[in-house]
Amino acid sequence: QVQLVESGGGLVQAGGSLRLSCAASGRTFSEYPLGWFRQAPGKEREFVAAIDYSGDNTRYSDSVKGRFAISRDNAKNTVYLQMNSLTPEDTAVYYCGAKPEWGYIWYAPGYDYWGQGTEVTVSS
Question: 13 pairs with which residues across the strands?
Answer without folding.
Answer: 123
